[in-house]
Specification:
The complex is a heterodimer of chains A (about 290) and B (about 350). Chain A has one domain. Helix content of chain A is about 70%, strand content about 0%. In chain A, helix 5 packs across helix 6 and helix 9 packs antiparallel against helix 11. Helix content of chain B is about 40%, strand content about 25%. Chain B is built from twelve helices and 14 strands. The longest helix of chain B has 18 residues. Chain B is elongated. Classes of the chains: A mainly alpha (about 290), B alpha/beta (about 350). The site of adenosine-5'-triphosphate (ATP) has 21 residues of chain B, from strand 2, helix 1 and helix 12. The site of magnesium ion (MG) has 5 residues of chain B, from helix 1.
Amino acid sequence: MTTTEPRPSTATLDVASVRVTEGGIAQDIRAIKVVMARELIRFRQDKIRIASALVQPVLFIFVLGTALSSVTGRSMPGLSFRTFMFPGVLATSVLFTAVFSAMSIVWDREFGFLREMLVAPVRRGSILVGKALGGALVATLQGVLVLLLAGFVGVPYNPVMILTLLVEIFLLSFTLCAMGLLIAARIQQMQTLMGIMQMILLPLSFLSGALYPVNNLPAWLHTLVMLNPVTYAVHPVRTAVFAHLDAPAATLANINPPLTWMGWHVPTLLQLALVVVLGLAMLAVAIRQFNKAE
Amino acid sequence: MTAPTISGDIAPPDQGPAVVVEGLAKRYGDFEAVKGIDFEVGAGETFGFLGPNGAGKSTTIKMLCTLAKPTGGRARVAGFDVVAQRQLVRRNIGLVFQDPTLDTYLTAAQNLQFHADLYDMDRATVGSRMEQVLQMVGLWDRKDQQVATFSGGMKRRLEIARGLMHSPRVLFLDEPTVGLDPQTRASIWSYIDELRERQNITIFLTTHYMDEAEHCDRIAIMDQGEIRVLDTPEALKAGVGTDRIQITTADDDAAVAALHSVFEMEATRSEGKVTINVAEGERFVPRLFAELGVPIHSVSVARPTLDDVFMSITGRTIRDAEASAGDRLRAATVGFRGGR
Ligand SMILES: Nc1ncnc2c1ncn2[C@@H]1O[C@H](COP(=O)(O)OP(=O)(O)OP(=O)(O)O)[C@@H](O)[C@H]1O
Ligand SMILES: [Mg+2]
């Protein structure tokens, strides 16, 4: 103990100079913004996380995609399996990042920072909204990185497509973050979290049609896919990509059939609306949970 | 959450006590962590909660800070009810928890900025206020370093600075020096003492270090969910009334027997010493030498300490109390769900 603690400075603290302003919606927005900003700062700092989140899509597209294209080559003439996989892999990688981001609230609890947030004079709702939007933004940024790979698999860098994808990805991420928060509200320990992530994330991505065409599936599997909300985000993403591919229309139509409910084609906008409404509902429940907790 | 909308003048009248507690109780299942306590803390006072592990100190603080709902009684902090006016209470208190609550990935300044935004502080004053509080705890030149690189003492100081950012009326410090080495403890206390002198702020702290309680204007000794006594440290020590005399002798057994037969005193033996408690110990020493009849090698006379106060009130030393609370504490650590 050779370091000497510095003496208190002689500057006098002027109490009257600080006024905490009045509450209201402006205060909520400020809280939401700062919670979001923190998510972004932490994402930017975590180079390893960014890199590791890129490994998965690269493996999927270039290893799995290449290997499987030798098997599936004949079923999608004029289209490489890697190209087919691209939108699904994009959605899957966003799915993982989003849920991880939201669940960082369990880390916040573990390391105490959650308490700093919960005891502040703001509605807890704004903290959760900030967490969800921040997580969605982080996942979208991760999606941008995956989008950079598009050129390698024959997907053009079309501005309209990219813009559409970013919006869709953001909506998907938001809903997944809300789901992550809802789950995290009930989890007290990191270990439990890891188990639950495994139990939820893989089924959500495997049953979304992200990695295979959803037509010609056995009935039971088709039913599960149609019940999975992620399906309704993956389909718009794939539709947006396929609209800009230079491939035989028949092939594209064949491997990206419209989603139907008892024969009715579900329009893309309705699919996205479904995703958003579900996200808002889950966020509302999560906020209730956090309000109830002491 | 039934948050009342904040409107009008958010500052309550300056007069009136900082904390008023009436019959406050907290029950976890069948276990009563806090058993209906009453006390008041005056504005500007430094008030200490002293007690062993598991006494209920943190639980009481959590209720006063709106982090836990009382299961009985009422409490007002800075003039506001801790259940009905949670947001107003939160706005007027600063908190340093027993367990760290910093984001170690952020820099010191980023942690404070986060706090300023959450507390909706006037943007124009955030910068200067940040400098003030960081200067005060000697961390201004470190403001752009990641908190992960800070020592335990620096983190604590940063938490104290953060607790002061929004100029709270009441600052809660839950074991502000726990886990720190003696030198760092001393430095934290010099900041707290500094704060007491210069600021019109009420400080409510808990500790289980007896010597630290001496820094308080008044202390409440808490044990097993109850306040056993509440007074100034001086009055508490005076209340014990006896000094402690320790002697080493040629024959401890004979000495104990002689103390019993000659002076009618019950002596205790520990670590090769014979201990007796007497009023006005210094005056008693000459008689002891003259009348004991057993050669005395050494003698020491000690004024009562808060340890003795605790002993005289609970019949245990605080260390014994800690040991017996160990099991309960362990259960609490596992079962604690509020987030650390
Ligand atoms: N969430 C909880 N659920 C169940 N029991 C709890 C909970 N929180 C605290 N307790 C119990 O309440 C008692 C008081 O705990 P508290 O944390 O208030 O003690 P303390 O005086 O702060 O002790 P320490 O000096 O160890 O911090 C303990 O026996 C603990 O087991
Ligand atoms: Mg405690």
